[in-house]
């Protein structure tokens, strides 16, 4: 198991963006033309999201006002 810190933000229509720490750690094979990560599934588990979920919601509401 590998632990990586992720930062939360509103991405519009995107679900997530993989950054350098993830790519460096897992070094996945990438199909750039198909924009896919072939291979097995990657399991992502959040450990502290529930602690900041309310804060993210608060900031999103303020941004929409």
Describe the structure in your own words.
It is a single chain. The chain is an all-alpha fold and 65 residues long. The protein has one domain (1-65). Helix content is 35%, strand content 0%. It is built from 2 helices and no strands. The radius of gyration is 15 Å and the shape is extended. The protein starts with 19 loop residues before the first helix and ends with a helix. 0% of the residues are buried.
Taken as a percent bin, the fraction of beta residues is under 5%
- Largest sheet features: none
The total count of helices amounts to: 2
As a percent range, the share of helical residues equals: 25-40%
Explain the layout of strands and helices.
Elements: H1 20-26, H2 49-64
Short structural summary:
The protein has 65 residues and is mainly α. Helix content is 35%, strand content 0%.
Keyword list:
extended; 65 residues; mainly alpha
């Amino acid at each position: 198991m590998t632990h990586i810190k992720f930062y939360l933000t509103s991405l519009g229509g995107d679900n997530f963006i993989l950054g350098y720490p993830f790519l460096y750690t897992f070094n996945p094979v990438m199909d750039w033309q198909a924009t896919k990560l072939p291979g097995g599934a990657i399991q992502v588990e959040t450990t502290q999201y529930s602690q900041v979920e309310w804060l993210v919601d608060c900031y999103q509401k303020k941004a929409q006002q």
